[in-house]
Design brief:
Chains A, B: Its cofactor is Zn(2+). Chains A, B: Pfam families: GalP_UDP_tr_C (PF02744), GalP_UDP_transf (PF01087). Chains A, B: InterPro entries: GalP_UDPtransf1, GalP_UDPtransf1_His-AS, GalP_Utransf_C, GalP_Utransf_N, HIT-like_sf. Two copies of one chain form a homodimer. Chain A has about 375 residues and is α+β, with helices and mostly antiparallel strands. Chain A folds into two domains: about 5-205, HIT-like (HIT family, subunit A, 2-Layer Sandwich); about 210-365, HIT-like (HIT family, subunit A), CATH 3.30.428. The first copy, chain A, is built from six helices and 18 strands. Chain A has helices spanning about 155-170, 210-225, 230-240, 280-300, 345-350, 360-365, and strands at about 5, 10-15, 25-30, 50-55, 60-65, 100-105, 130, 135-140, 180-185, 195-205, 245, 250-255, 260-270, 305-310, 325-330, 335, 340, 350-355. Chain A has a twelve-stranded antiparallel beta sheet with strand order 1-2-3-6-8-10-9-14-15-13-12-11, with helices on both faces. Chain A has a three-stranded antiparallel beta sheet with strand order 5-4-7, with no helix packed on it. A two-stranded antiparallel sheet of chain A has the order 16-17. In chain A, a hairpin with a 3-residue loop joins strand 11 (about 245) and strand 12. The longest helix of chain A has 22 residues, at about 280-300. Chain A is globular. The mean pLDDT of chain A is about 95. Chains A and B meet through strand 4, strand 5, strand 9, strand 10 and helix 2 of A and strand 4, strand 5, strand 9, strand 10 and helix 2 of B. Strand 18 (about 350-355) of chain A pairs parallel with strand 5 (about 60-65) of chain B.
Chain lengths: ~375, ~375
């Protein structure tokens, strides 16, 4: 049985159960109703992983050893993210779709049973916890070829509505503390499924980078009474030299201290905490700038750039007035035949070295003819 | 003119000036004296880079745009780390060597002029600084083929003496706050020179991972009166299951919350702050365990494993009683044809997901027949 819900921008969501009990959500713009049943045999769900504390850094590491057996390279004729055609039964039972979100088949993080809390962090004697959270897959189009940048503006609007919906719903789960929708693109960052898609990780703890951003923003608020990100944005708007694109509601810039050869932050001009707080006007203005930025990125070298594109948001239950929504795109590609590798300094010390000035990469991005 | 100095373990150091004013240091065990002159034309030294503050994380990023033009792939017949033979003039003027250390030709960090201090960190309005510090290259052998694991124990002892010497000397420089000797191995981590060598980065600030480790260790000391690393080590020795190798002075283990498919920490049983504090007995016992660990690592899949091997030390000027020396080896290789990629969760959120249990990888490493 399908469960239907009306969202904004004319988008309808249809939820259906998959054969193994997972949920698939169709996001449609034409009032479609969805009812195709998952014809695959029932499959046992994998177990839940473990949270272990790295005591030297006081950070959780997820041990997801149960994922090891997962399928990495399906046969070419069977992309699990394509819609089902005839007897080729995929993750999406219907024969077509606009945007779908389904629970990951081999999730690193899973919904815990009953009440859940992370163990107290007390150094090397800290108990292991269960790896609570949610991992979802989001498919941008049923067209196997292409990429985010090839989507129509209208499709990006549906995609954004799906992201917003997921953030709204996942924020209601009491065990979820932070939500990160992201897209990995390119074999250089380990992507084995080329079908345009992203992932949504909903953590039961604050990931270390979020924890650090929060602590820095809190200190800045205490000392200046201002929101750090707002001042960062003001400086980028004032400096101008690193701005890549801008419209009435959004600005895209290479940050002053970028860590990657190509790094772009896309932020609303009127700051919000997360995707769920975007106004309809902001949401409607996102497709244009996001497509422009992605086309500029691929245009720099005329090749498909490997990238990681991540929504940074305020955590679900704290720091709502301290951290701001922005979309961060980073690429390790520094020239057609060259990648930036995170080796000794970056990986072991956390000290980033950049060979390309942000002003220079911003200029290269602006110079792309669209 | 060569400047000679006697170190421990019968090692003699000869310092010579290179044509462009850089210093090369030969570390020898047979009382050699070194005098070969650098015959290459004088070359202008590249400029110094910039330190920019990433205000969202309050971390310095080094902008080393002057390095962009550096040579990445020298012609095959001319490895710049091989000794000079006839007319092929390399970075090492002599026709043979045991271990040499020379200043990096395209350093990310350079010795600053005059007195130096990092700018105050005050959010987005923080001034840029100059990228003060030192970058050195350390060659493990004049034999172009082979790898760390193929060195003789006696050569590893000379190499260790060279590392100790560099830490001693660099610690005297008032602008240096942290020293990290590391080795990147394998094309998978971006290494373009296969000649066995490492690098020494001496930072004028605390790299972010060191800063975090220091804060965590300080809190643990405040709360328990104990040194965090010592308790971590005690737990590993008690648990036993993750120990890979051990001798009278050192232990090698896969940490309880390892972040990489293969990760090994090698630590002295009697803790010290840094390489310079190792006792002669500890130093003499290092070659055996380091070679065993590296041979086990390559033995797991019977291939040359890509790795990053880094000496973690206490900072030069603070936390000397809080952080401990250990040698961390991490590999992204999780199976012969498979790498672990740091994508959305690890790279953008700092949240590590591990598919392999540390107890399992420790078992695989122990099972290797040497």
């Amino acid at each position: 049985m399908s469960e239907q819900k009306k969202l904004s921008a004319g988008v309808i969501r249809n939820n259906l159960a998959m054969a193994d009990g997972r949920t698939i959500r169709y996001y449609d713009s034409q009032g479609q109703s969805r009812s195709a049943q998952d014809q695959r045999p029932k499959e046992e769900q994998p177990g839940i992983g473990e949270l272990r504390l790295d005591p030297l850094l006081n950070e959780w590491v997820v041990m997801a050893a149960h994922r090891q057996g997962r399928i990495f390279l399906p046969p070419k004729e069977l992309c699990p993210l394509c819609p089902t055609k005839g007897e080729l039964l995929t993750e999406v039972p219907d024969t077509n779709y606009e945007v779908v979100v389904f629970d990951n088949r081999s999730p690193s993080l899973r919904k815990p049973e009953g009440d859940w809390a992370a163990p107290d962090m007390v150094g090397p004697e800290t108990d292991a916890g269960t790896a609570a959270g949610k991992c979802e897959v989001i498919c941008f189009t049923d067209n196997h070829g292409g990429s985010f940048k090839d989507l129509t503006p209208q499709r990006v609007r549906v995609l954004l509505e799906a992201w917003i919906d997921r953030v709204r719903e996942l924020s209601q789960e009491p065990y979820i503390h932070h939500i990160a929708p992201f897209e990995n693109r390119g074999e250089e960052v380990g992507v084995t499924l080329s079908h345009p898609h992203g992932q949504i990780y909903a953590y039961s703890y604050l990931p270390s980078r979020v924890q650090k951003m929060l602590a820095v923003a809190r200190k800045y608020m205490d000392e200046t009474g201002k929101v750090l990100f707002d001042d960062v944005l003001a400086r980028e708007l004032k400096d101008q030299v690193r701005i890549v694109a801008k419209n009435a509601h959004w600005v895209a810039f290479v940050p002053y201290a970028a860590r990657y050869p190509f790094e772009i932050h896309v932020a609303p001009l009127n700051p919000v905490a997360d995707l769920a707080e975007l106004t309809p006007e902001q949401a409607d203005a996102f497709p244009e700038i996001s497509l422009e930025v992605m086309r500029r990125l691929d245009g720099v070298f005329g090749i498909d750039m490997a990238y990681i594109a991540t929504w940074h948001q305020a955590p679900v239950r704290e720091g709502r007035d301290l951290l701001r929504l922005h979309w961060q795109i980073t690429s390790v590609r520094r020239a057609p035949g060259k990648l930036k590798y995170l080796a000794g300094s970056e990986s072991a010390m956390g000290a980033f070295i950049m060979d390309l000035k942000p002003e220079q990469s911003a200029g290269q991005l602006r110079d792309v003819e669209l």
